[in-house]
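Task 17 of the worksheet. Students: predict the tertiary structure of the chain below and write it out as structure tokens. Keep your answer in the requested format; marks are given for formatting as well as content.
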Amino acid sequence: MKYSHTRAVHAGREDFDALGVHVPPIDLSTTYPVRDLDTGTASFDALVGGAASAANPIYARLFNPTVARFERALAQLEGCSDAVAFASGMAAASACLLAARQRGSHVLAVRPLYGTHDHLLESGLMGLPVRWVEAEAIGDEVRADTALVIIETPSNPTLDLVDIAAVVKAAGKVPVLVDSTFATPVLQQPVLQGARLVMHSATKFLGGHGDVIAGVVACDAEWAVLLRQVRAATGGLLHPLAAYLLHRSLPTLALRVERAQANAITLAQRLSTHAAVAKTFFPSLGTVANAHLLGTQMLGPGTMISFDLKGGHAAAAQLMRKVKVATPAVSLGSVDTLIQHPAGLTHRVLDEATRERHSITPGLVRLSVGIEDVEDLWADLQQALSA
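Model answer:
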């Protein structure tokens, strides 16, 4: 399914005519009147059991119409039947692991992943031990009790691409979860390659303005039931105001990604020849694993750049002090450019040997390129690098 600007504008708005509105209403109710007890009881059972909706919403932890509209919209953009939204990307990741416990007792995962996701898996807090494997070895490591295979592509922070279709084939009957945060549905739709779950930290590109924290998993109906059950039991619900902001941002998602990607292509090319830079990680430069997947699995190189500074940690720290247009801050996918140091921040929870093994060096800097004028961004990076 090709990404559609028209679908992005209209998805999740199917009930607007009946409601007589032009923009999504925000339902802030925490509880709903139960005039008919039998209907209320049946609705409660359905929602706790993982149903997408019921005659009576009962309680906002079980259902909220504003959240449901965003979920329907995101599911359409990812080509899935369902989507389940959570209070953060990590709440979404946790729910996937808790749901996976119903089908197995361990997971396989490919590094690198977002640092906190890595830490969650390594800690065993969700009750599922992890075995870290290379993508090419998944077929040899799958067991009868494997609950889930987890990959991130492009990977955080080195932007390596993982062949989703190859992983799905190697996993066999084991469901594959793809963290597609960096790609967004504009550039990549993992279900077309056979993935069962597509996870986003919606805080990033889906929100796009640095003003909402959220997570969402697009999936099939079977997984949606499990994820809603977990959300109802654990309370990892997305606030309706956050859902409104996310739904509001979806129509401009492609415009933001395409503009920032054009900037990133220019900046990556220039950084790759800068005297202070040892290596620039960017798919269209061919400097990441499986760059050949660009144009097929992933339609463009994206908006993220990582580059390793010859001066190591000191140079990275100086760069973050000296930038004036870019903001030195964690997170990504916003309309403004953000720059951060993975080894010292987002991936600090990994041990040093693991960081080094996956090229997360003391000199590595990650740039989330925004929609500013590209020459302003380049001038800012040049002055900071020369300093």
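Marker's comment: The chain is about 40% helix and 15% strand. The radius of gyration is 21 Å.
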